[in-house]
Amino acid sequence: MFELSIQDQSNLTSFLKDLVRTPSLSCQEEAVAARVAAEMRAVGFDEVWTDRVGNVVGHIGGGSGPRLLYDGHMDTVGVGDPASWTRDPYGAEIEGGLLFGLGAADMKGPLASLVYGAKLIVDSDIQLAGDLYVAAVVQEEPCEGYAMRVLVEEEGLRPDWVVLAEPTNLQVSRGHRGRMEMHVTVQGRPSHASVPEQGENAIYDAARIIFSLDLLAGSLSEDTFLGKGTLAVTHIENTAASKNVIPDSCTFVIDRRLTLGETEAKAMAEVQGVINHEAVRAQIRLAEFEHTSYTGYVCRDVERYPAWVVPESHDLVRAAARAVKQIVGARPAIGKWDFSTDGVYTMGVADIPTVGVGPGEERQAHTANEHIRLSDCFTAARIYAQLSADLLRQV
Ligand SMILES: [Zn+2]
Questions:
Q1: What is the distance between the alpha carbons of residues 103 and 20, in angstroms, rounded to a whole number?
Q2: What whole-number distance in Å separates Cα of residue 208 and Cα of residue 187?
Q3: What residues are annotated to the active site?
Q4: How far, in Å, from the CA of 31 to the mean position of ligand 1?
Q5: Which fold has domain 178-291?
Q6: What is the pLDDT of residues 280-301, one digit of tens each?
């Protein structure tokens, strides 16, 4: 049975405090990456390196067996409204066994647990038949899965299993809905606003589409495990020469959550169907992102993140549940996340069996006074060690 010594608990806590005190907005993870790499070296990983997009990867083992990769992201969202925090977002204050700060749960606490889970393997006399990797990745918040894609497809590190350490409150998660962002641009024809009948008002045409989309939203597919797909218009803007001119174009944004079985093509065809029905001149396009990582790597892709689920009967899900039970003493609930994770790439695109288990509560993510229970971080480290040993131990 893996135990975290008092010294390791204290070191994990100091490490986590440093992580929280080091701001790491997406694309600005350089300082936190250096801190993660230093801790990985200090606890005895065999190799530690930084890849082209800025992910920090630690490796233990070197057998001919399977490859197990633990994934945690280093970036955080912004503070939001500072007035809504009653604690310093970068203070890493501890009170009542809870550590407070931006990213404490999402997911610097889980990341610290991963590093100390690996340390337990290093300190044990277990010989690994395969390879254990901990990947601390960049830019998960704006474009989940992208940095993992670089690691797998460009750096050539293809694992057999991925464990996501995103917060699950030490339960097991085996999937979540996907998402995509569509932009719909409606064309109108300008005229002076004093003679609106001579023009074609792009805002009115957009409104007709939007009302029909609201009806469509009520009839989207449902999956018994992941629930319903959703559709919401989240932004709208128009162009017009001035406020007394009929707008010649109007663009609105659709946030679409995809349940299992809903593809990007299906989601776009549904919107196209509404446009055709309303006989409006409009085009749909997928939103794109482009950011430059702190290493100078240009990340560019469309905003498309598929839904994914791993069957409850899958060996990896069972192994994760067994490891939790062994350490915690009770069988975990096996469920899903509401938010999105790197699993959109690892399982959703690359078809690498993926499961989630992490300390912290999902509802803490992106909230003021975000916090994590330190004892859960210690427990998670032990679970990661147990799972590594179960999956990779030489027999
Ligand atoms: Zn996260």
A1: 7
A2: 13
A3: 75, 140
A4: 18
A5: Alpha-Beta Plaits (3.30.70)
A6: 999 999 999 999 999 999 999 9
